[in-house]
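Entry:
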Amino acid sequence: MRLRPDQRRRLQAVPGGRLLAVSFGSGVDSTAMLVALRLAGLRPDVITFADTGAEKPETLAHLERMNAILIEWGWPPIVVCRKVPLASTGYTDLYGNCIANETLPSLAFGMKSCSIKWKQKPQDQALKGSRSGPNAAEPHPVWVEAQRTGRRIVKLIGYDCGRADIRRSHKLASADADFDYVYPLQILGWTRADCVRAITEVLGADLVPIKSACFFCPASKQWELYWLAAHHPDLLERALFLERNALTGKHSRFDEVEFGATWDDLVQNADRFPSSSTTVGLGRNFAWNQWARVNGVVDDAFSVKRESADRARFIALADNLRDADNALDARSAAPVP
């Protein structure tokens, strides 16, 4: 695969004397971004990945496979960044944070603080360093070089030309005091399908990853929950526990008066929650626990069913419900459109 001459020129113009820092998510878009840089003859100065402690095993395995490829290319290895909370918090990752505080991830309430806290800041600190606290570390050599020479660092973000990513990128500033921000896939005009094709042609179909997201991500669609039930029932059970812990805990926003019953009552006995602007679960307007019960994903004890017939049903439902959305990845055998 080759870039068109105009695509290559546009991408090669990105550095402009700046240092290149790739924000790698270990998903389709960021993997395709590495491929695009390689095709354009651009070598990043640093590549970072934020591990929230809640990634799916496939995502971490893909990261290791990409590291092996980067070594072959003569590129820097991926710097894995992980937030280290204060010991007094009693937790070590995002899942533990939610459990300890008896709350859902902030995305369930339409906010982004979990992403900032567990992804953006750890990657920033990996570059800039930190003087004190549990995350204390020396600045990365790339940051030292930028400070010494006055060169800017441009962070390369893997947003493609899908509507959702275009909307996200347009809401963000093009620069701040520390970094500039550029979206190479949008410069190339690549959609998610283009990204899958690029990975397939350059690295091979087996290097197309799954979507990178926490296993309890509130943005998950119902087909993704079936996929999780089929492939990682233990993770789905942990997500169900997190949801129950939050909606029945001390910080729950669930109003029994508004709904006419407790959250547990509705999960156990109703097919859906009454229409409301209140977040009722990880699905925002639906609870994963209720969904799992109504759709026969769990037994009476809310344990995910693990018989071979159940797993086959979950896989079939995941494939049938899936559409050509922004989660086009390795989780389906459907051909790329």
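The CA atoms of residues 70 and 223 lie 33 Å apart.
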